[in-house]
Specification:
Blueprint lengths: L7 E4 L3 H11 L3 E4 L5 H6 L7 E4 L4 H4 L2 E4 L2 E5 L4 H6 L1 H6 L2 H6 L5 H6 L2 H7 L5 H8 L3 E6 L9 E4 L5 E6 H4 E3 L2 E2 L5 E9 L5 E10 L6 E12 L2 E10 L6 E2 L1 H7 L6 H13 L11 H23 L5
Parallel strand pairs: 1-3, 2-3
Antiparallel strand pairs: 4-5, 5-11, 6-8, 6-11, 7-8, 9-10, 12-13, 13-14, 14-15
Helix pairs in contact: 11-12, 12-13
Length: about 300
Amino acid sequence: MQVPAPFEYERATSVEHAVALLERHGPDARAIAGGHSLLPMMKLRLAFPEFLVDLGDLRGELDYLRIENGEVRIGALVTHRELLESEPLFERFPIFRDAERVIADPIVRGRGTIGGSLCQADPSEDLSAVCAALKARCVITARAAGNGTTSTTSTTSTGLIRRTVDMTDFYVGPYETAVGPAELLTEIRIPIRAGAQHGSAYEKVERRSGDWAIAASGAAVWLADGVITDAGISLAAVGLRGVVARAAEDALRGQPPNDDLLAEAAQLAAAQCEPIADQRGPVEYKLHLARELTQRALRRAVARALGREA
């Protein structure tokens, strides 16, 4: 039987209370939301938190999806099912629905949260690639100013400090994020670019439905006057951390989309990957998937931006 090591537990009543509990109990405390990422690791004795702070009662504060100040703002406790079923999110960023359809199963999607998925920082995690492709930013909340790369810092009405971290800086390494011991991921922000045609898509190959990816790729493009003004490409399961294909993005900017260009970008993306051979396949197979899936995702993203997807 898989049984976690002994731990203490308390339910937080507010974001402020949750942060205070994490601060009080130190680096061996962990926040838990849906539990579908942390609990399996605890049962396998891969994680040993001494104190769990349950965020289940904070849905009134952190379970929202709204358009505000030119951004889609997603509370950290929004579930996979809510992301899958959100029409406003699908209309602006269809990549979310692509990814959510291939994440786990209905039971997990009903309880697992976007915040828990991102904080797990698994190199094979789907929403990490989605958010990186869309150039999202993460809002981290604490009682004191934290360290790390930030773009903005603000103070809440309760005196909490909020710092905003780009997705490219959010992941420090495998299973490690910029969220400190006494901090909490509270929101994900995705910019909406007025005046640009946007399309995004996610492609994944897995051994069985709902499994971790053998390889996966998310792509987003923004077009104006028939030219790609910006692009985001991020891959999962092909390295020790998520792969943001900057060289491929650079190759797309300023160019009109065509098959040759997309194929070149896909090749550049695959060249940045460093997969390892395991039970899911050899390195050569994973590199082939990285290239092919990126090209497919780019084609669908461009077709969606141009309103040509069947």
